Every structure is written in C-alpha cells, then in structure tokens.
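TODO from last week: model Aspartic protease.
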Amino acid sequence: VKQSLHPVWTSQIQIGTPAKSFTVYVDTGTSYTWVISSAWIGPKNSTNNKYDALKSSTKKREKGKLDVTYTSGSRVVGPIYADTVTVGGLSASHQLFSPVNQVSGLNITRRDGLLGLALESGPRSRNATFIDTLFHQKKITKRIFSMYLSSGPGSELYIGGINPQKYRGEITYLPCRSKHHWIVEGSVRANGKESYRGGMAINSGTTLIFGPKKSVEEWWGNVFGSAPCPEEKCGGSGYFTFPCNFDASLSFKFNDREFLFAKDDLILRKLEKNKLICVGAIRAIDHDIWILGARFMKSVYTIFDADMSRVGFATPA
C-alpha cells in the first residue's frame, strides 16, 4: 500500500486472465469495486490502465450496471462483470466489479479505480466485497483486514488478520452501528474540551476529516486563532484557518481510550498569501456523523472485523 502527499490508501491489484495491474484507492467507505474500462474516453494524455473484457478468458458479464454518486458529487457508471481479482497475492475468482465507462468529478490522473472494502453481508450480495469473496472461497479463515498508514515507508493493507508487528499494546474494539458501514461510537476533543460524541465512520477513501457543521465549529472554537475560511480562499465551504505554529492538544476517544491526533496532520496546507496561516484538515459538511479519513487513520492501527461487526484501534508501532 502506498500513500500520496495527501495520504489516501492506494494499492496494486490485478484483474483478469492474463492478469492486468491497476492502481486503485482502497476505500472502506463503499462496497463497490471498479476500474477504468477500455470504453472510457479520457483525456488524450491519459496514462490510466484500462480493463478490456475481451482480453480476459475468465470474465463473465453479469446483469445490471453500477451507477454510483458519492457524497462529494462525483459519479461513476458502468456494466457489472465478474472476473478473477488478486490483491497481495490472494486471488478471488468470480469477484463482482465494474469496468466503468463514465467518470465525472473525480481526479483519476494517477489512479485506475477503487477497491471497495465497506462492511458487507455475504457472497450473494451484489455488493459482496473482495474480503467476503475470499472468505467464502476459503482463501482466508476470517473476514478481517487491517490497515497501517505511515507518512514514511511501511504502509500496509493486511488481509485475513492482524499484523502484530504494526501495533503495540492492547486493541480497543467497538461494535459497528450499521450493517453496511464501518461506523462506531466515539468523541473528538481539542484542549480537553469535547465538541462531539456520536457516530464516526472510518473511511480510508478520503483524505480529510469531516463533521456536522455545528460540532466542527465548536471544535475549531477550542483552537486559538482559528476562523472560518472564505470559499474563494480555500476552494470550498466548511474549511477553517488557524496559526501554523498553534499549540493545542487534539484527540479522538473510543471506549474511554484516547488517541492523540498529530498536529502536523491537522495542517492541510498554508495559505498562498500568508504562510503563517494554515488551512485545517477538519471540514464542516451537511452530515449527521463525523467521517474520519486517512488523516485520522495515521494516528492508529485499524482492524476491520466483519465477522464480529466491529472496528479495533491500537497504537501504531
């Protein structure tokens, strides 16, 4: 697993026979897996790897189509196929996915698609994830995968269990509040003051941390010198600015266990016309729960346990 400047999980996967490689986002916020189709008409200088069903001897056209609009407003559309999908040396035959031929609102210049690893239910589901398929084909004995995200080398997607070399101490487990999504109960604090307690979606497919407007405004209110950022300066609504040399204690709490949030991960970027002021990575949106992306996941070792419908957090090694 690799990360970019703004850390988002990506991985190399292979699809088809003979196998073709694709670089995809690893997204725990959705169960859909898709890659760019050879029928997609992209920019002339596009370097994306594309899936061509005619070149795979193990493909099978399935009924229906994928048509997904994400919370960001981006959309992908394509037919449904089944083919052999391999991740980290583990292969799942007849894995459902979509070679999409329509993509809008997504920057896929250096990415070929998305591997969806949301919490799902069983192999008969049209949205059965790669983990589900591996389990029911007896390639893994538990529907568990773990994630370690680092700013340096060593980031890892560990399929089928937990890597003891990537964490230390005890694991704190929390039951999922949804049948389909990795949503747990937690709270967020700044300088010891709690601004939100409730549902938190663990989503590796996004870089930032998002929350309901009221609680995000309250959270930033506990950071000295913070202020709402005008849309024209920050490229969208819901952003806040703050002094880059700020001094604050930031943390997330689960089952009375507190995980500190690194100050550097709060800095999204510096303002172009004032290098002393930074744009924050915690953004207000119209939503009823918090969404914790890769910026948060760098602070923890995360275990996704579909068998027990729970998420575990530990201190990264």
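Done. The first helix runs from residue 130 to 136.
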